[in-house]
Design brief:
homodimer; 489 residues; alpha/beta; Aspartate Aminotransferase, domain 2; 3 domains; eight-stranded mixed sheet; globular
Chain lengths: 489, 489
């Protein structure tokens, strides 16, 4: 097969594998045929399949190889031929080729890094990944039924039409009466916009409100994507600390135009914004003429106690409420909504028209039908119960196995786990992956210079089966223990 | 319990109950404990449980109370303390309400107006509307089958996952091998991006390439939305005339960075860009270091002769190809794609990630399955035949009834009909609508000062049944005749 590992090396085994594969590709071995399967290569090299998978994952994430349905991995020849290798001499640059650096717009710098996720989470025995939903917990029967109905008269018209800048009126009505009411939010139809997931709501709000020189505030740690979305408007994005009571509201500069916050379950720690801070935040917004971008991406997933009402339920003017169906239906559906003042919704509708027009009609109608029939509430209840069981399993297992204090959460789909001193999150993540445990480092949620960057893991439990939680956390505890020993040496 | 109904009242009983509960809440009775169950309250007041439920429902929908798992209803104290009641005297109306004009970003001016469409086209006996697809011509059976399969193993993973900035690899593969090939386009996976319809492709390209001061060119007449999309980047947008051979390429300024063009079927006239002009356009782009944004929104719908290859098939570097499934599947699906240089696709993928993430997974997978099974090609063939029949019916009817020369088209879904001198398109559209005929004025496709603005109708034939074409055009001819008489008086 021609993939040869070095005889001696101080590099981790998976790195050696990765480098050997890359060398083989650069030598032109896989120009025509796919790369060997992880099983075949593991057999060939007499190493574990996980190690090969890790090597492939890293190359995949760096774009050196591409994944192809029914084929497996292939060398990404485009990238390889433009990097140090044989191909470059053959094609001298044409005089008139496009200089893309000159043509592409310069990108704004965001204060938080980009999240790079491992999208092959199903390959891991213990996928403590955040943000994915396993197909087993998706309400397939109810959704299929709603899709089928959405293709029948009279619904099919709404499923197929070009809606211009409008939304499906049935979905808007169902959001108003059955979804928003449970968050204490009253909204007229002209205060509601259907979006392509919460991401699209955040984007449209930022685009409508921010420009060069405006100041916006994000949480630190926080959702990295919101920092990128706000920074893309050329606004100055200021990260503000978060503690056990949520965003440190007192630190927000008075000149801030937009405050992006996750009050129900702070992203990524899952703490709730305290009663007192909520009051201070609303008061500060009113005093300073700021607007609040309330990202309420998973408030439905609460397992204990009483939910505080949405900020939007309290202040119907300054709060822009962003909701999503990604967390308890599926992120792949790409459907969410915004509730805000009619003036802002009108502008966001305009921005949406000239970027995507509208969310796919059939998904809007099928979702509306699912809510109207009550299937949605039933599914949500059932899903919440199953997540609560996992949440309890996580809490008790973490308490006894990790043996450390961790931030208490009332809901969400992940636990924010602090690491012992001197143990780095990135190192734990890498070693855990080698042992089949997929967890996420907290680092990408912090600014680059934050002292706590490497001190937390984000351990998600939506995608992992409940019976895998305890054994998976045991492996994770071993990894942390081993890392700790190593740092002490 | 302290909920007291008025002795006498003209209000419906449930309203009286509702008001009594609200009063009790405002008096602070339910600050700590949940509201009584509907059964308990019905017993207490000796009224039916349905009446109590109705009262609770209304309060729930207005956000006055919230529903809690296992507890029942609770007063939403946050709302009540800030609404008309005892609390408000404490908080007099604030002076600083939001001045939205100050908060919203100023909008760029586009050289073309906004299209305002009548989305209730189904109410007209003769809907010669452009851009809509009747549900009768949608391949419901094949689409339902593909949707069902997309929810089964192994496809369901791709339907539901958060794909981050990636696309469904099966759809990318099917686009490459089965869709793009028919346009003469070769593309590697890293040259393809799946978008939310063509609109999203145009938007992402503009956002990646244009900034303040850059010059972009659009067609005049042309697709109004592209003018708005380009203008939103603060680029200078220059409209260039179109004649019987398509865009007047010689008039494009040398300093142009991006040229937006519809070469296959010019929007809205349906003329094709001539062989000679195509060569000149590609040469000019190369000479001036311009890029070409090729909007190939409906080239599949060609009924006679041989299609010229896509510009992208000739120049794989400077041409950004935008395709769509809106015209021959349905605009409501919101699915399209872009083919461009890997450097640009990478940037557009970044812009897409922070605006919508990706097109809904299930729609990507179902479409991929439909192409893979061959259903797509079968459906397209059938649909093309049925549209060709309509196209022929339109051509012969227009020739004899309208009795005027009109631009010959080789395909598309509309005919561009010139009006007699002094007859204004807007007047014809208004009068035709009164007589049950929905046609579109050509005016919105022209710049405001263009002399031909009021001289054309756009008569679409995708949505109208074939048997309605002849009688519908007869009514339209009458309207034009009457308008002409009136202008002569």
């Amino acid at each position: 097969m021609g993939i040869i590992l070095p005889v001696q090396s101080h590099e981790p085994l998976y790195k050696q594998v990765r480098n050997a594969i890359e060398q083989a590709i650069r030598d032109g071995q896989f120009a025509q045929c796919p790369l060997p399967s992880s099983r075949a290569l593991a057999d060939e090299l007499s190493i574990s399949r996980n190690t090969v998978n890790l090597a492939y994952q890293e190359m995949l994430s760096e774009g050196l190889i591409v994944s192809e349905e029914r084929v497996g991995y292939r060398a990404n020849t485009a990238i390889l031929s433009s990097s140090p290798g044989h191909a470059q001499e053959k094609n001298p640059p044409e005089p008139n080729t496009v200089d893309w650096r000159r043509h592409l717009q310069t990108q704004a710098q965001a204060p938080l890094p980009e999240i790079q996720k491992d999208y092959d989470w199903q390959a891991y025995p213990y996928p403590f990944i955040y943000g994915q939903v396993p197909s087993s917990s998706f309400p397939t029967t109810a959704w299929n039924r709603a899709l089928r109905t959405s293709m029948e008269y009279p619904h099919v018209h709404w499923s197929l039409r070009d809606g211009g800048s409008s939304d499906d009126p049935l979905l808007v009505e169902q959001l108003r009466t059955n979804v928003l009411a449970s968050r204490g939010i009253r909204a007229a139809p002209e205060e509601i916009l259907v979006t392509l997931g919460a991401q699209n709501g955040l984007f449209l709000a930022a685009r409508s409100l921010l420009g060069p020189g405006d100041r916006a505030v994000v949480e630190n740690p926080g959702y990295p994507d919101i920092a990128h979305i706000l920074a893309a408007t050329k606004a100055r994005v200021t990260p503000i600390e978060v503690d056990r009571d949520g965003l440190c509201v007192g630190d927000i500069p008075r000149t801030t135009k937009l405050i992006a916050v996750t009050p129900s379950h702070h992203f990524p720690t899952n703490v709730g914004l305290s009663e007192e801070r909520r009051g201070l935040l609303l008061q500060a917004a009113s005093d300073n003429d700021s607007l609040i971008l309330e990202d309420d991406y998973d408030s439905e997933l609460r397992y204990t106690g009483r939910a505080a009402p949405a900020l939007r339920a309290v202040d119907r003017e300054r709060v822009i409420y962003v909701g999503s169906f990604s967390k308890f239906l599926a992120p792949g559906l790409r459907i969410g909504y915004v509730v805000a003042a009619p003036e802002l919704i009108e502008r966001m509708r305009h921005e949406r028209r000239y970027s995507v027009r509208h969310a796919p009609g059939q998904i809007q109608r099928a979702l509306a039908l699912m809510i109207e029939t009550g299937d949605y509430q039933r599914v949500l209840r059932r899903y919440r119960l199953s997540l609560r069981d996992k949440w309890e399993a996580m809490n008790s297992a973490l308490r006894f196995i990790i043996g450390r204090d961790f931030l208490p959460s009332t809901g969400g789909t992940s636990v924010w786990v602090p690491l012992p001193d001197h143990v780095r999150a990135d190192a734990v993540v890498l070693e855990a992956a080698k042992r089949g445990v997929l967890v996420e480092s907290g680092a990408p949620c912090f600014t680059a210079e934050h002292p706590d960057r490497q001190r937390f893991l984000r351990v998600g439990y939506a995608a992992i089966p409940i019976e895998a939680i305890l054994p998976g956390l045991r492996v994770l505890a071993d990894v942390i223990h081993d890392e700790r020993k190593q740092t002490k040496r």
